[in-house]
Please model this.
Amino acid sequence: MRVPALTPIDEALQRLLEQLPVQAAARTETVELRTALGRCLAKDIHASRDVPPHANSAMDGYAVRAAETAVDTAALPVTQRIAAGQVGEFLVPGSCARIFTGAPLPEGADAVVMQENCETVNGNIRVLQPVASGENVRPAGADIKKDSRLFAAGRRLRPQDLGALASLGLTQMQVVKPLRVALMTTGDELQRPGNALQPGQIYDSNFTTLHALLAALNMQVIDCGRVGDTLGSTREALLTAAQLADCVITTGGVSVGEEDHVRAAIEQIGELKLWKLAVKPGKPFAFGSINAADDLAPPCQFFGLPGNPVSAFATFVLLVRPALLAMQGATDLEPRRFAVSAGFERGVSGGRQEYLRACLVESEGRLIAEPLVNQSSGVAASLSRSDGLLIVPPQTQVSRGDSLWFLPFSELGS
Model:
């Protein structure tokens, strides 16, 4: 039997994204602004007004006609006082107005002199430093212009985005409904926390980790429990899950062992489109689809993650996370990464791209990456001890000081 070639991670992601359905992005709902964090916009947001709606003072000082400060003039009488939230009167030529930060600029004024550049002379104000027209003034629309596109459809809303939407007076927006994700783990050796361990059993950490990662993406998680190590039970569990969800995620059972039944089940009830990656950890990753019970319904997407905790985590971050975001119509799919300096040396790596758990330290203004000593894919706590994943390309020798890409775990939040 011919052994299939391992698929490079970039090619795997491209193939995966090309085969994902777009139907899920068509399901939308209207939500309140305060509950929209992390949700994907279903349509463009255009500004209905200028922000700010009027020219206003950028600081405490005096509103003036700039031309009247260009030469040595007599002191300007203060004819009015304008605080934020108040609207002043027309500024009489040859006068100034006491004004505070955020207050609307009175008609007739075109600049603000900061109070530090003025002196009081018999109750009037003498300008010590001339200003140009527009100086210390925030024009109307300086933040957001009316009719401009503030956000495009597909944007995942961040806290600062909600503030920008609030500045337009919006209280609701249309977003894509959360995906329904069926999550199950496989293996007779697994037991959920809270239950007593039987001989030979271990607690299931993958479910909790993946549930948290999905929650950070605002997905609707369907708990499908643990599936026993038989082909029949695996097949039935997958078919049941596919009727409930937009996609199914499993951990374990996708390798080549006698007790690994997930891949075989998918080949019976659906289509296996991708299997085995040229990555470390995470080689036995599978992607495919499960045929719907209704011939008119689209197939349910399937992601089979390895059973080792670090492998499951890494393949979720690298492949499943961007796939789920794409299914929701998001435009920014992959977590951002940045370059760091290697704080170690190692010989030429193998043929798979490696993702090393590493910590960052700062030295002389540079970020230095130090990999953890134990890189076993079964050491789940190593994910908690590290700051992110350091990427070492295939067939690469690393010398101290070399530049490598680093994917920080901080990118995996909402």
